[in-house]
Amino acid sequence: MDIINDLQDLRYLNWSKVRHSSGTAGTLLKAEETSKQGKNYYKLSRFDSVTGKFGYEAVNEIIVDRLLTALDIPHLSYSLIHARIVIDNVEYETYLNKSLDYKKRGEKKSSFETFYNVNKMPKESPMDFAIRYGWADYIYQMFIVDFLILNRDRHGANIEVLKGEEGSVRLAPLFDHGLSLIYDEANPAKLNKNDFLADSKVMDFIGRGYTLENLTLIPKDKMIVLPSQKDKIIKSLFKGLEGILSDVYIEKIGDMISERWSFYEVLRNKK
Protein backbone atom coordinates (compact mmCIF):
# COMPACT_ATOMS: atom_id res chain seq x y z
CA MET A 1 0.00 0.00 0.00
CA ASP A 2 1.58 3.30 -1.07
CA ILE A 3 -0.91 5.55 0.79
CA ILE A 4 -1.56 5.29 4.53
CA ASN A 5 -4.54 7.47 5.41
CA ASP A 6 -4.85 6.37 9.04
CA LEU A 7 -3.18 9.04 11.16
CA GLN A 8 0.27 7.88 12.31
CA ASP A 9 2.08 9.24 15.34
CA LEU A 10 5.51 10.31 14.09
CA ARG A 11 6.06 13.06 16.62
CA TYR A 12 9.30 11.38 17.70
CA LEU A 13 11.04 12.12 14.39
CA ASN A 14 13.70 14.83 14.34
CA TRP A 15 13.32 17.05 11.27
CA SER A 16 16.27 18.81 9.68
CA LYS A 17 17.29 20.48 6.42
CA VAL A 18 20.61 18.63 6.57
CA ARG A 19 20.84 15.98 3.88
CA HIS A 20 21.07 12.73 5.80
CA SER A 21 21.22 10.06 3.12
CA SER A 22 20.07 8.53 -0.14
CA GLY A 23 16.58 9.40 -1.27
CA THR A 24 16.29 12.56 0.80
CA ALA A 25 18.17 15.03 -1.35
CA GLY A 26 17.01 18.62 -1.66
CA THR A 27 16.16 21.44 0.70
CA LEU A 28 12.92 20.12 2.20
CA LEU A 29 12.75 18.96 5.81
CA LYS A 30 13.90 15.38 6.31
CA ALA A 31 14.19 12.74 9.01
CA GLU A 32 15.39 9.15 9.33
CA GLU A 33 15.08 6.14 11.58
CA THR A 34 16.34 2.55 11.69
CA SER A 35 13.82 -0.29 11.76
CA LYS A 36 13.86 -4.07 11.24
CA GLN A 37 13.58 -3.43 7.49
CA GLY A 38 16.64 -1.18 7.54
CA LYS A 39 16.85 2.59 7.35
CA ASN A 40 13.66 4.53 6.69
CA TYR A 41 13.83 8.04 5.29
CA TYR A 42 11.08 10.63 5.60
CA LYS A 43 10.58 13.84 3.65
CA LEU A 44 8.08 16.65 4.03
CA SER A 45 6.62 18.96 1.43
CA ARG A 46 7.63 22.61 1.56
CA PHE A 47 6.76 24.01 4.96
CA ASP A 48 5.93 27.59 5.88
CA SER A 49 6.67 28.04 9.57
CA VAL A 50 4.72 31.32 9.63
CA THR A 51 1.42 29.97 8.29
CA GLY A 52 1.98 26.33 9.23
CA LYS A 53 1.04 25.29 5.71
CA PHE A 54 2.61 22.51 3.68
CA GLY A 55 2.92 22.19 -0.10
CA TYR A 56 2.12 18.99 -1.93
CA GLU A 57 5.53 17.86 -3.15
CA ALA A 58 5.07 14.67 -1.11
CA VAL A 59 1.98 13.85 -3.17
CA ASN A 60 3.94 14.44 -6.38
CA GLU A 61 6.36 11.71 -5.36
CA ILE A 62 3.51 9.17 -5.28
CA ILE A 63 2.13 10.34 -8.63
CA VAL A 64 5.54 10.09 -10.30
CA ASP A 65 6.33 6.80 -8.52
CA ARG A 66 3.19 5.30 -10.07
CA LEU A 67 3.96 6.80 -13.48
CA LEU A 68 7.48 5.34 -13.53
CA THR A 69 6.13 1.95 -12.47
CA ALA A 70 3.74 2.06 -15.44
CA LEU A 71 6.63 3.03 -17.75
CA ASP A 72 8.82 0.24 -16.29
CA ILE A 73 11.60 2.68 -15.40
CA PRO A 74 13.68 1.84 -12.27
CA HIS A 75 13.07 4.34 -9.46
CA LEU A 76 12.88 4.79 -5.72
CA SER A 77 9.48 3.83 -4.34
CA TYR A 78 7.72 6.08 -1.84
CA SER A 79 4.85 5.77 0.57
CA LEU A 80 2.53 8.67 1.36
CA ILE A 81 1.72 8.75 5.06
CA HIS A 82 -0.85 10.80 6.97
CA ALA A 83 1.01 11.69 10.14
CA ARG A 84 1.20 13.82 13.23
CA ILE A 85 4.65 15.41 13.53
CA VAL A 86 6.47 18.05 15.59
CA ILE A 87 8.59 20.84 14.11
CA ASP A 88 10.30 23.28 16.48
CA ASN A 89 8.10 22.11 19.37
CA VAL A 90 4.88 22.76 17.40
CA GLU A 91 2.60 19.88 16.43
CA TYR A 92 1.25 19.52 12.88
CA GLU A 93 -0.84 17.09 10.86
CA THR A 94 0.23 16.50 7.27
CA TYR A 95 1.08 13.98 4.56
CA LEU A 96 4.73 13.02 4.13
CA ASN A 97 6.92 10.59 2.20
CA LYS A 98 8.64 7.48 3.45
CA SER A 99 11.26 5.52 1.50
CA LEU A 100 13.75 2.74 2.19
CA ASP A 101 17.51 2.89 1.73
CA TYR A 102 18.35 1.68 -1.78
CA LYS A 103 22.07 1.07 -1.13
CA LYS A 104 23.25 -2.52 -1.13
CA ARG A 105 25.37 -3.82 1.73
CA GLY A 106 28.81 -2.23 1.60
CA GLU A 107 27.92 0.44 -0.93
CA LYS A 108 28.78 4.08 -0.38
CA LYS A 109 27.07 6.96 -2.10
CA SER A 110 28.33 10.05 -3.84
CA SER A 111 26.50 12.76 -5.73
CA PHE A 112 26.92 12.52 -9.48
CA GLU A 113 28.36 16.03 -9.43
CA THR A 114 31.10 15.07 -6.97
CA PHE A 115 31.89 11.82 -8.77
CA TYR A 116 32.07 13.67 -12.08
CA ASN A 117 34.36 16.40 -10.75
CA VAL A 118 36.78 13.82 -9.34
CA ASN A 119 36.84 11.46 -12.33
CA LYS A 120 36.15 13.54 -15.44
CA MET A 121 38.59 13.96 -18.29
CA PRO A 122 39.72 17.46 -19.33
CA LYS A 123 36.84 19.38 -20.96
CA GLU A 124 34.54 16.34 -20.66
CA SER A 125 30.89 17.33 -20.25
CA PRO A 126 28.61 15.59 -17.72
CA MET A 127 26.73 13.98 -20.63
CA ASP A 128 29.90 12.63 -22.25
CA PHE A 129 31.08 11.47 -18.84
CA ALA A 130 27.86 9.50 -18.29
CA ILE A 131 28.16 7.91 -21.74
CA ARG A 132 31.78 6.90 -21.04
CA TYR A 133 30.65 5.12 -17.86
CA GLY A 134 27.90 3.25 -19.73
CA TRP A 135 25.04 5.21 -18.22
CA ALA A 136 23.59 6.64 -21.43
CA ASP A 137 20.33 4.66 -21.33
CA TYR A 138 19.73 5.75 -17.73
CA ILE A 139 20.25 9.41 -18.65
CA TYR A 140 18.00 9.15 -21.70
CA GLN A 141 15.20 7.66 -19.59
CA MET A 142 15.75 10.40 -17.02
CA PHE A 143 15.39 13.07 -19.74
CA ILE A 144 12.10 11.50 -20.86
CA VAL A 145 10.74 11.31 -17.31
CA ASP A 146 11.78 14.85 -16.50
CA PHE A 147 10.09 16.11 -19.66
CA LEU A 148 6.82 14.29 -18.92
CA ILE A 149 6.60 15.77 -15.42
CA LEU A 150 8.55 19.01 -16.02
CA ASN A 151 10.98 18.24 -13.22
CA ARG A 152 12.70 21.50 -12.23
CA ASP A 153 15.20 19.99 -9.82
CA ARG A 154 17.62 17.47 -11.35
CA HIS A 155 20.71 19.08 -9.87
CA GLY A 156 23.98 17.24 -9.41
CA ALA A 157 22.99 15.74 -6.05
CA ASN A 158 19.63 14.46 -7.30
CA ILE A 159 21.52 11.83 -9.26
CA GLU A 160 23.64 9.53 -7.12
CA VAL A 161 26.52 7.18 -7.77
CA LEU A 162 26.73 4.06 -5.59
CA LYS A 163 30.19 2.61 -5.15
CA GLY A 164 30.67 -1.04 -4.10
CA GLU A 165 33.44 -2.42 -1.92
CA GLU A 166 35.10 -4.12 -4.92
CA GLY A 167 35.19 -0.96 -7.01
CA SER A 168 31.90 -1.37 -8.85
CA VAL A 169 29.87 1.75 -9.59
CA ARG A 170 26.23 2.16 -10.53
CA LEU A 171 23.65 4.91 -10.59
CA ALA A 172 20.97 4.92 -7.92
CA PRO A 173 17.37 4.48 -9.08
CA LEU A 174 15.69 7.75 -10.02
CA PHE A 175 14.47 9.69 -6.99
CA ASP A 176 13.25 13.09 -5.79
CA HIS A 177 10.51 14.31 -8.14
CA GLY A 178 8.63 16.60 -5.78
CA LEU A 179 9.45 19.85 -7.59
CA SER A 180 7.58 18.91 -10.73
CA LEU A 181 4.14 19.06 -12.36
CA ILE A 182 2.26 22.14 -11.06
CA TYR A 183 3.67 22.15 -7.54
CA ASP A 184 4.18 25.94 -7.55
CA GLU A 185 0.85 26.91 -9.14
CA ALA A 186 -1.52 28.74 -6.77
CA ASN A 187 -4.44 28.87 -9.23
CA PRO A 188 -4.42 25.66 -11.33
CA ALA A 189 -7.89 26.29 -12.76
CA LYS A 190 -6.47 28.94 -15.09
CA LEU A 191 -3.93 26.59 -16.71
CA ASN A 192 -4.40 25.59 -20.35
CA LYS A 193 -2.67 23.49 -23.00
CA ASN A 194 -0.02 26.12 -23.70
CA ASP A 195 0.84 26.28 -20.00
CA PHE A 196 1.16 22.49 -19.80
CA LEU A 197 3.61 22.42 -22.69
CA ALA A 198 5.66 25.43 -21.56
CA ASP A 199 9.29 24.51 -20.99
CA SER A 200 10.60 26.83 -18.30
CA LYS A 201 14.24 26.93 -17.26
CA VAL A 202 15.11 23.98 -15.03
CA MET A 203 18.04 23.01 -12.82
CA ASP A 204 19.68 20.03 -14.52
CA PHE A 205 23.31 19.10 -14.02
CA ILE A 206 23.28 16.92 -17.13
CA GLY A 207 21.60 18.63 -20.06
CA ARG A 208 20.82 22.01 -21.57
CA GLY A 209 18.66 23.59 -18.89
CA TYR A 210 15.31 22.85 -20.58
CA THR A 211 13.52 19.49 -20.54
CA LEU A 212 12.44 19.74 -24.18
CA GLU A 213 15.95 20.55 -25.36
CA ASN A 214 17.22 17.56 -23.40
CA LEU A 215 15.00 15.28 -25.49
CA THR A 216 16.97 16.35 -28.57
CA LEU A 217 20.06 14.76 -27.01
CA ILE A 218 18.46 11.32 -27.21
CA PRO A 219 19.21 9.19 -30.29
CA LYS A 220 16.04 8.14 -32.11
CA ASP A 221 16.50 4.45 -31.29
CA LYS A 222 16.76 5.32 -27.58
CA MET A 223 13.45 7.21 -27.39
CA ILE A 224 11.32 4.64 -25.61
CA VAL A 225 7.79 3.87 -26.79
CA LEU A 226 5.31 4.84 -24.09
CA PRO A 227 2.47 2.41 -23.27
CA SER A 228 -0.63 2.61 -25.47
CA GLN A 229 -3.12 2.91 -22.58
CA LYS A 230 -2.28 6.51 -21.79
CA ASP A 231 -5.66 7.57 -20.42
CA LYS A 232 -6.03 4.49 -18.23
CA ILE A 233 -2.53 4.91 -16.82
CA ILE A 234 -2.98 8.60 -16.07
CA LYS A 235 -6.29 7.93 -14.32
CA SER A 236 -4.61 5.29 -12.15
CA LEU A 237 -2.01 7.81 -10.92
CA PHE A 238 -4.59 9.52 -8.71
CA LYS A 239 -6.22 6.51 -7.05
CA GLY A 240 -6.66 7.26 -3.35
CA LEU A 241 -5.62 10.91 -3.69
CA GLU A 242 -9.18 12.22 -3.67
CA GLY A 243 -9.47 14.41 -0.59
CA ILE A 244 -5.69 14.80 -0.39
CA LEU A 245 -5.53 16.81 -3.59
CA SER A 246 -8.41 18.98 -4.76
CA ASP A 247 -10.37 17.89 -7.82
CA VAL A 248 -8.97 20.79 -9.85
CA TYR A 249 -5.37 19.85 -9.03
CA ILE A 250 -6.02 16.22 -9.99
CA GLU A 251 -7.64 17.32 -13.24
CA LYS A 252 -4.88 19.74 -14.20
CA ILE A 253 -2.00 17.45 -13.26
CA GLY A 254 -3.61 14.72 -15.36
CA ASP A 255 -4.03 17.16 -18.26
CA MET A 256 -0.40 18.22 -17.99
CA ILE A 257 0.96 14.68 -18.10
CA SER A 258 -1.39 13.83 -20.98
CA GLU A 259 -0.34 16.82 -23.10
CA ARG A 260 3.37 16.25 -22.54
CA TRP A 261 2.96 12.50 -23.16
CA SER A 262 1.28 13.20 -26.53
CA PHE A 263 3.89 15.80 -27.45
CA TYR A 264 6.69 13.36 -26.68
CA GLU A 265 5.15 10.69 -28.91
CA VAL A 266 4.81 13.16 -31.78
CA LEU A 267 8.46 14.15 -31.35
CA ARG A 268 9.57 10.53 -31.14
CA ASN A 269 7.76 9.66 -34.38
CA LYS A 270 9.23 12.67 -36.19
CA LYS A 271 12.79 12.40 -34.97
Helix/strand order: EEEEEHEEEHHHEEEHEHHH
Give the neighbour order of strands across the main sheet. Answer: 1-6-7-3-2
Using only C-alpha atoms, the radius of gyration works out to 19 Å
Low-confidence stretches: 19-26
Computed structural class: alpha+beta
Number of domains: 2
Give me a quick take on this structure.
With 271 residues, the chain is of the alpha+beta class.
Descriptive account of the structure:
With 271 residues, this protein is of the alpha+beta class. It has two domains: 3-100; 108-270, Orthogonal Bundle (Phosphatidylinositol 3-kinase Catalytic Subunit, Chain A, Domain 5), CATH 1.10.1070. The protein has helices at 57-70, 112-119, 126-132, 136-149, 193-197, 211-215, 230-236, 247-270, and strands at residues 3-9, 30-35, 38-43, 47-48, 53-54, 79-87, 90-100, 108-111, 153-154, 160-163, 169-171, 203-204. Strands 1-6-7-3-2 form a five-stranded mixed beta sheet. Strand 2 (30-35) and strand 3 form a beta hairpin. Helix 4 (136-149) crosses helix 8 (247-270) and helix 7 (230-236) runs antiparallel to helix 8 (247-270).
